[in-house]
Design brief:
This protein is of the alpha/beta class. It is built from five helices and 14 strands.
Length: 331
């Protein structure tokens, strides 16, 4: 399985411009030919383009330096050197490009979005350019200019409509597999999910909802503990949030406050997104315990489900549809 990479620093270098040519016209019976050195070609540019065929940045993991083609030298008979080949690096939609000084170069949200990150150097002028009435035989030409060179940071923030947020082993992967086409790894131990998973849920109105299973959050995640910041960043772009809390927990209210506190510490704007609380694994507790823990949350936006045996899943699908409508209205 390829390594999942959602943040990486790479070096990009545009092509160098080609040197101008020093040349003089030579032909039989024309002893005093003038300068005919052509200009050098322009160096290639470096672009970064979003492409839906890519889902993470792991293809940059091995090679960290990328360079566009250099411009060719000018030639005699006023021949212009060929321009260098542009370099286009592909990234997943949702990738931010940041300069090493922290300047945001671009945010590529849609497949096909493209950003110019390094300009190629201009080609040097050949000696034909410098010919004048007072300087009939220039014996010099310009060198090509170097292209731009940068260290840039690529950071992927998954684009999803709905984010599943919960403590480790809260049932996020099981729920995602139950309602979408995703097939995440599911096991009965914490931190089963080590990378974000995406699934697509068809909606009744003919559209679809992309759902992201964000790997388990623990207390201190905003400081990098557990799976930490590397996956909290993926919740930033979602339109709405489902907080998943398993009913086997004795104090679901504490778990909910912990999740919200971690999101608020990372980005307070996350708490303003439409949400619903999903109490999972209802098949593992009695009806009395289920009702007691639901009441303890003191929030009307609660639904109790079991993805394992399908209890109340239709109700959850209706809630997701409502959340999507709310998110559009509040956008």
């Amino acid at each position: 399985m390829p390594k999942f990479t959602d943040s990486i620093t790479i070096k990009v270098r545009a092509g160098k411009g080609g040197a101008g040519c020093v040349s003089f016209f030579r032909e039989k019976y024309i002893p005093r030919g003038g300068p005919d050195g052509g200009d050098g070609g322009r160096g290639g540019d470096v672009y970064i383009e979003a492409d839906y065929n890519y889902y993470n940045l792991s293809h940059f993991f091995r090679d960290r330096t990328y360079r566009a083609g250099d411009g060719a030298r000018g030639r005699g008979q006023n021949c212009h050197g060929a321009d260098g080949t542009d370099l286009v690096l592909k990234v997943p939609p949702g990738t931010s490009i940041v300069d090493e000084d922290g300047t945001i170069i671009a945010d590529l949200l849609e497949s096909g979005d493209r950003a110019l990150v390094c300009r190629g150097g201009i080609g040097g002028k050949g000696n034909a350019f410098f010919k004048s009435s007072t300087h009939q035989t220039p014996r010099f030409a310009q060198p090509g200019m170097p292209g731009e060179e940068k260290n840039i940071i690529l950071t992927l923030k998954l684009i999803a409509h709905l984010g599943l947020v919960g403590l480790p082993n809260a049932g996020k992967s099981t729920l995602l597999a139950a309602i979408t086409n995703a097939r995440p790894k599911i096991a009965d131990y914490p931190f089963t999910t080590l990378i974000p998973n995406l699934g697509v849920l068809p909606l009744k109105n003919g559209t679809s909802c992309t759902i992201a299973d964000i790997p388990g959050i623990i207390e201190g995640a905003h400081r990098g503990l557990g799976l930490g910041l590397s996956f909290l960043q993926h919740i930033e772009r979602v339109r709405a949030i489902l907080y998943l809390i398993e009913l086997t927990e004795l104090d679901p209210r504490y778990n909910l406050s912990l999740l919200r506190a971690e999101l608020a510490a990372y980005n307070p704007a996350l708490l303003k997104k439409p949400y619903y609380i999903v109490l999972t694994k209802s098949d593992l507790v009695s009806h009395g315990d289920m009702q007691k823990r639901r009441d303890a949350l003191e929030d009307p936006r609660v639904i109790v489900v079991s993805a394992q045996n399908g209890d109340n899943m239709d109700g959850l699908l209706d809630i997701i549809e409502t959340l999507m409508e709310e998110s559009v209205a509040s956008a």
